Amino acid sequence: MQPEMTMHLIQAALAAVEPGAAVRVAVGRDGDVLSVAGHAYNLRDYDRVFLAGGGKAGAPMAQALAAILGDRLTAGWVNVKEGHLARGTVPAALTIHEARHPVPDAAGLAGAERVLALAREAGARDLLFCLISGGGSALLPAPAASLSLDDVQALTGVLLRCGATINEVNAVRKHVSRLAGGQLARAAAPAAVVSLILSDVVGSPLDVIASGPTVPDGSTFAEALAVLDRYGVTETVPATVRAHLLAGRQGRVPETPKPGDRLFRRVQNVIVGGNAIAAQAAKAEAERLGFHALVLSTYVEGEAREVGRVAAGIAKSLTADGLPLARPACVILGGETTVTVRGAGRGGRNQELALAAALALDGWAGVTVIALATDGTDGPTDAAGAVVTGDTVRRAREQGLDAAAFLAANDAYTFFDRAGGLLRTGPTNTNVNDLTVILAE
Question: With bands split at pLDDT 50, 70 and 90, how would you rate the model's confidence at 1?
Fold first, then answer.
């Protein structure tokens, strides 16, 4: 497949989930009346309008909302990942603040405190907009009173390496935070709260995206402890974290607010974009390029290397049997895989998926697999993912590279950096999970 065709597919998918456009679709204004997903908010009913949030898509979301609000915006603060700053003008009332991801840092903590302060300042005659997108859990760290930032950093490192799903990881995160798991809404009560959410979680469960800061939390301290037990890391996390979770299970630390809590009566949570939109846009672009195209699923989860082998199997079926589509064919998968890190290499889930697919496709002609993180940063690397063909492993062998050894070491980044195939988009300022595109020419 020609490289420019790959970029056409990627660009079409990303353009469809541009966060500013998503906000402008979700929020309309007619004079003093805002319309948000069927709800009307008359700005004359509110003394002040605040904006707060965090996530990789925070900058364009905040700019779009600030433009809609105009001079009615009293103050705003949004934490974003380093390098994910706004393009263009930012109004004086709005601060866009950089912090580290995926392991939180002091800048993120300082910003989280500002977000909590804005929420607590809001009163019954105020309106608080919360802008939530992928990465918000790490970008809005607010450790529980008995914990330090060092504790949360160590916990995050363990959770990211143990193979837990994002739902499981965030069940723990909610219970070591003062902001996650509905606690930002608790801080803002009795103000009116509207959360605009760009989903980066399979199925878009509101309570999981960025650890659900304005959503009732169905998980418990007991479930958080069960996650640590399930992955054998109970003794690996800091002792202070274990003590805090145990105290919560015993009722000595208040639980996160639950479904039915009266504080959510004035809270509206709205999904403004997600993985399915990006997948359908990639499908439309593939069809424009002459492919028969199908979105097979947007609920793909599991170990990245196993999903990579499944993607290779689909590619083989397209080539050998014309199933599920006649060639030229394009099958699109959406979702988010995980990696259980056992080696000391560098990579991300999409690069690992692509490397596993390359090994399974060795020698197959006319097939391509594209694995893309829609935020532009796959794992702790400067790559968004990788592109492989049936020729990738052969070319690597000619350079003296053992693809299987790199996969065993979780070192897909080094492999593709040497063999070729890395996708480098730079920060996209959006985040709606991952896309795997399988092509048979």
Answer: low
Q: How many helices (H) and strands (E) does the chain have?
A: 16, 15
Residue 309's pLDDT band (boundaries 50, 70, 90)?
very high
Domain boundaries, the chain: 3-273, 276-440
- Cα radius of gyration (the chain): 22
Supply the pLDDT for residue 238: 97
What number does CATH give the domain 3-273?
Answer: 3.40.50.10180
Interatomic CA distance for residues 313 and 362, integer angstroms: 12
Q: Residue 232 CB: number of other CB atoms within 10 A?
A: 9
Q: Which residues contact 148 (CB under 8 A, 6 or more apart)?
A: 240
**Does residue 427 have a cis bond before it (omega within 30 degrees)?**
no
Residue 253 neighbours by CB distance under 10 Å: 16
Inter-CA distances, 353 with 130, 359, 369, 378, Å: 34, 10, 10, 11
Alpha-carbon distance 419 to 396, whole Å? 5
Fold of 276-440: glycerate kinase, domain 1 (3.40.1480)
151-159 average pLDDT score:
96
What is the enclosing helix (H) or strand (E) of 78?
strand 73-81
Domains 3-273 and 276-440 share a fold: no
As given in the structure block, the two tokens for residue 349 are: 């889930």
β-pairing, 27-30 vs 192-198, is: unpaired
Sequence-separated (6 or more) residues with CB below 8 Å from residue 193:
127, 128, 129, 130, 185, 214, 266, 267, 268
Task: Check if the beta carbon of residue 270 is closer than 8 Å to that of residue 37.
Answer: yes
Output phi, psi for 265, to 5 deg: -65, -30
